[in-house]
Design a protein that fits this description.
Strand content: under 5%
Low-confidence stretches: none
Distance between the termini: 23 Å
Number of strands: 0
Helix content: over 70%
Number of helices: 6
Length: 185
C-alpha cells in the first residue's frame, strides 16, 4: 500500500513538474522574441511546442498556461489573454484526441501541424478580427477591404507563414527529442 501511494505521488509530482517546465519554456521563448511574437505578422517559435500535446494530455494545460503567461504582455491585452489561451486549449485538445492512438512520431507531428495551422490559426485570425472590430487597445487593421470574412482571411494569411516556420522548427526538435525521451510518460 505504501509503495502504491508513493508511486502515485511521484507520478503526480512528475506531471506537475513537466507541466510547469513546458509552460515556463513556452512563456520564456515567447518573451525573449517578444517584438516578433505578437501581431498580425509574427514568428512565435514557442508554437513549435504545440506538438507535445500529441503525446500527453498534460501538455494541453502546460501550453495553455504558457500562452496565458506570455500573453500577459500582449498589445491586445485581455482579448489575447482570453481568446489566445482558449484557442490554444482547443487546438491542443483536438490534437491530443486525434493522435492518442497514433504510434508514428512523424504522423503525430503532421496531424499536430495540420490542426495548429488550420484550427489554431483560424481561431487566432478570428481573435484579431474581433479585436479590431470592437476597437480593442493594441488592435490593428487587417488591410483587407470588405466584410468580416475578408478581414479574417487577411489575418489568417498574415499569421500562417510564421506559424509554419515555428511548426517545422518545433517538429524537428520534438521528433529528435522523441527518440531520446519518452514524451508520452
Amino acid at each position: 500500500m505504501q509503495k502504491t501511494v508513493s508511486a502515485r505521488q511521484s507520478s503526480r509530482t512528475r506531471n506537475i513538474t513537466l507541466t510547469a517546465i513546458v509552460a515556463a519554456l513556452y512563456a520564456a521563448i515567447t518573451l525573449v522574441i517578444a517584438p516578433i511574437g505578437f501581431g498580425p505578422v509574427q514568428l512565435r517559435l514557442s508554437e513549435g511546442l504545440n506538438h507535445l500535446s500529441a503525446w500527453n494530455k498534460r501538455y494541453i494545460l502546460a501550453l495553455g498556461l504558457g500562452v496565458f503567461i506570455a500573453n500577459l504582455i500582449s498589445p491586445l491585452g485581455w482579448v489575447d489573454w482570453i481568446f489566445g489561451t482558449a484557442g490554444t486549449l482547443i487546438m491542443t485538445t483536438v490534437t491530443y484526441l486525434l493522435t492518442r492512438k497514433v504510434t508514428s512520431t512523424l504522423v503525430k507531428i503532421l496531424i499536430s501541424s495540420f490542426v495548429v495551422s488550420t484550427l489554431g490559426m483560424g481561431i487566432l485570425a478570428a481573435e484579431f478580427t474581433f479585436a479590431f472590430n470592437i476597437g480593442a487597445s493594441g488592435s490593428f487593421p487587417s488591410g483587407a477591404s470588405g466584410g468580416l470574412f475578408s478581414q479574417w482571411l487577411a489575418y489568417y494569411i498574415s499569421v500562417l507563414p510564421g506559424e509554419i516556420v515555428s511548426l517545422i522548427v518545433g517538429g524537428i526538435l520534438i521528433f529528435t527529442l522523441s527518440k531520446i525521451i519518452k514524451l508520452d510518460k
